[in-house]
Write a structure and sequence with these properties.
By secondary structure, this protein is an alpha/beta fold. The protein contains 9 helices and 12 strands. Strands 2-1-6-5-8 form a 5-stranded parallel β-sheet. The protein has a 3-stranded mixed β-sheet with strand order 3-4-7. It is elongated, with a radius of gyration of 22 Å.
């Protein structure tokens, strides 16, 4: 799968995408992540990506033109703004937006079937509505709160979808048993060594004895009991 991220702050992504699971997934060629600097698709010497809103108001609005040119260069759309034949088959374009559809595990599962996901990171007061009307398939939000831009939400989508791709996690069952993966249940609590964590002579925090019993049936019952419905 290929992720294309359109942003005015391309350096933001380097640290997170070059560590841990996402780094290994890229090295194994299970995913490709390409970051595209929106400013490279401007035509004026100041590399202007935003302007004041029509009708007045506070803040600046990301312009439609550089976003259009970026998608054109990526061969997502043709000059008339319509998707190319290849993009129609296996590509979706999403605008990261506070007013978008809520991203959740069900959406992540649907996204896995795609070959290419394009994520446009909004900034400032918003994005020219013509981007939403004509250039994207949907708007995606990760929650009902305000962020400085769409970069963090884009990372969330890449991370969540990547974990579901075959071969990314070392153990196939890891993704199957995670929270939200089984009938919208939150996963049971986890414990590891030491069996008893001693803060002082009087205060000791113990791991549940059943988990150390070796009785797999009882362990299964305990875990099922402590799964929390979401």
């Amino acid at each position: 799968m290929q992720f294309d991220i359109i942003t005015i702050f391309p350096e933001i992504f380097n640290s997170y995408f070059n560590e841990s699971i996402l780094s290994r997934a890229q090295k194994k060629n299970l995913i490709k992540i390409k970051i595209h600097d929106l400013r490279k698709y401007t035509i004026d010497k100041h590399k202007t990506v935003d302007d004041t809103p029509y009708g007045g108001g506070a803040g600046m609005i990301l312009k439609v033109e550089p976003i259009y040119r970026t998608l054109l260069d990526l061969k997502i759309i043709k000059k008339d703004g319509v998707k190319t034949k290849k993009a129609l088959k296996d590509t979706k374009v999403f605008l990261m937006s506070a007013k978008g559809r809520r991203f959740n595990q069900n959406l992540a599962n649907k996204f896995v079937s795609l070959k290419r996901i394009v994520l446009i990171c909004g900034r400032y007061e918003g994005v020219d509505e013509r981007v939403s009307n004509y250039l994207v398939d949907d708007e995606i939000s990760i929650g009902e709160y305000v962020l400085t831009g769409g970069e963090l939400p884009a990372m969330v989508v890449v991370d969540s979808v990547t974990r579901l791709i075959g071969g990314v996690l070392g153990n196939k069952k890891s993704a199957e048993n995670e929270s939200f993966s089984r009938n919208k249940y939150l996963e049971h609590p986890h414990y590891t060594k030491p069996e008893i964590f001693c803060l002082n002579k009087k205060t000791r925090w113990r791991a549940p004895k059943v988990l150390l019993s070796g009785n797999h049936n009882e362990i299964k019952k305990w875990r099922k009991k402590h799964d929390n419905q979401h």
